[in-house]
């Protein structure tokens, strides 16, 4: 279809946008982009001088000096020593200021809550994990528990003189762009205004409170800190009681039009003559339904039950090994559909899949290779997350850092 470009009518100002026409960037847009550009360069280098930044970014020295001055004033960069330059004069080095801000991420799931706090460099300041019966609690009780955990972290950061950048929450469910949980069946939530209720429980804090799907935020963490950090095309699978996917496409997290992309667990597959959803055949609930020795697994016992399955698999119990092989093939069949659609470089197994990867991984890889249309699965590899169960919470905290890297700079209190 040809694209029609409309001519500007007489007297129409540059500020008046035509349908489909990109808005012209103004000075503040350009400066914000440049602030983020400089910050990312310093982050990548570790430490560098203003002259280094001018050489590497292509910006002139006066512009770099102005940008650096603002970043220092905003407590984003700091001067951290000096080195002797080529002509003998010392060059002042710059680094990311890790001593002032903190970003908080929390995950609420069926059997636990995890909280991670990071500084501007992504260093972990806190990493807490608490048992939580998410499936047996009302939404209100879960919000109270979330608020209590977050308040403890805020108090700790306050005692260290740190300013909170924001609080983001990871939830295993479908969350719209306004932070309303449309459906979180594993938690029993429906049409629940999580961010509104959490802000109320925390007495309307000055920083932003947001929420997103746990798989989305796990993908954010993997892209920044995982063994495949920086990869442009990746799928992250949660591997908790539910099965969701976070999608990194062309270097960006893709949420879809209303935030509901990545529901890989609902795809239909056929394995051994049976047709059903990927989640029903290959989700952690399917593992426990088939292999748990308990008749009724309580929400707070999921991790213990998975560990029991691992112990039995290590002992070579035939029923367990055979079932995990079949579950791995089912997972591979679902991954193959996603790989054919998105052509990622890596599919990362997170959550409880990490513990089970020795048995389900090879079967999934074999099925992926057999089912994908492209030879060699289009170059996709199935890999195991190195971030553990805290990946979604870490991604929640990391998303706030990504906003700063994009040029949305914080303002220190008192300015």
How would you describe this protein?
InterPro entries: ATPase_NBD, Recombinase_CS, ROK, Tscrpt_reg_IclR_N, WH-like_DNA-bd_sf, WH_DNA-bd_sf. Residues 1-25 are annotated as: Disordered. Belongs to the ROK (NagC/XylR) family. This protein is α+β, with helices and mostly antiparallel strands and 415 residues long. The chain has 12 helices and 18 strands. The protein has helices spanning 27-45, 50-57, 61-73, 139-159, 194-201, 214-225, 278-282, 284-291, 302-314, 318-342, 353-371, 391-405; strands spanning 48-49, 77-84, 90-96, 101-108, 112-118, 124-131, 163-171, 174-175, 180-184, 189-193, 208-213, 234-237, 245-249, 252-253, 268-271, 274-277, 346-349, 381-384. Strands 6-5-4-7-11 form a 5-stranded mixed beta sheet, with helices on both faces. Strands 14-13-12-17-18 form a 5-stranded mixed beta sheet, with helices on both faces. Strands 1-3-2 form a 3-stranded antiparallel beta sheet. A hairpin with a 4-residue loop joins strand 9 (180-184) and strand 10 (189-193). The relative contact order is 0.12.
């Amino acid at each position: 279809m040809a694209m029609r470009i409309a001519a500007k009518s007489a007297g129409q100002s540059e500020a008046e946008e035509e349908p489909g026409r990109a808005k012209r960037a103004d000075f503040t847009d350009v400066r914000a982009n440049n602030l983020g550009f400089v910050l990312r360069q310093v982050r990548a280098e570790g430490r560098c001088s203003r002259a280094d930044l001018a050489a590497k970014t292509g910006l002139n020295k006066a512009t770099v000096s102005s940008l650096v001055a603002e970043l220092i004033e905003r407590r984003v960069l700091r001067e951290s020593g000096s080195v002797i330059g080529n002509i003998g004069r010392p060059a002042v080095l710059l680094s990311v200021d890790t001593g002032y801000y903190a970003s908080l991420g929390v995950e609420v799931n069926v059997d636990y809550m995890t909280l991670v706090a990071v500084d501007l460099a992504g260093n972990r300041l806190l990493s807490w994990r608490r048992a939580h019966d998410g499936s047996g609690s009302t939404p209100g009780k879960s919000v109270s528990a979330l608020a209590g955990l977050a308040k403890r972290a805020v108090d700790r950061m306050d005692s260290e003189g740190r300013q909170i950048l924001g609080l983001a929450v990871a939830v295993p469910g479908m969350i719209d762009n306004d932070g309303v949980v449309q459906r979180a069946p594993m938690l029993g939530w429906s049409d629940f205004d999580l961010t509104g209720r959490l802000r109320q429980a925390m007495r309307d804090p000055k920083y932003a409170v947001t929420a997103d799907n746990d798989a989305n935020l796990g993908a954010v963490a993997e892209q920044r800190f995982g063994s495949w950090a920086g990869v442009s095309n990746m799928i992250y699978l949660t591997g908790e009681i539910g099965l969701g996917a976070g999608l990194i496409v062309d270097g960006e997290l893709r949420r879809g039009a209303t935030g509901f992309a990545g529901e890989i667990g609902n795809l239909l597959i056929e394995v051994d003559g049976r047709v059903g959803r990927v989640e029903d055949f290959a989700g952690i609930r399917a593992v426990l339904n088939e292999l748990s020795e308990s008749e009724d697994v309580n929400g707070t016992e999921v991790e213990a039950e998975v560990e029991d399955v691992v112990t039995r698999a290590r002992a070579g119990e035939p029923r367990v090994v055979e079932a995990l092989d079949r579950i791995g093939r089912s997972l591979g069949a679902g991954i193959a559909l996603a790989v054919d659609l998105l052509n990622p470089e890596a599919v990362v197994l997170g959550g409880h899949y990490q513990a089970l990867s020795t048995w389900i991984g090879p079967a999934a890889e074999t099925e992926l290779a057999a089912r994908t249309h492209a030879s060699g699965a289009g170059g996709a590899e199935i890999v195991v997350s190195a971030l553990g169960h805290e990946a979604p919470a870490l991604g929640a905290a990391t998303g706030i850092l990504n906003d700063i890297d994009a040029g949305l700079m914080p303002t220190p209190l008192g300015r």
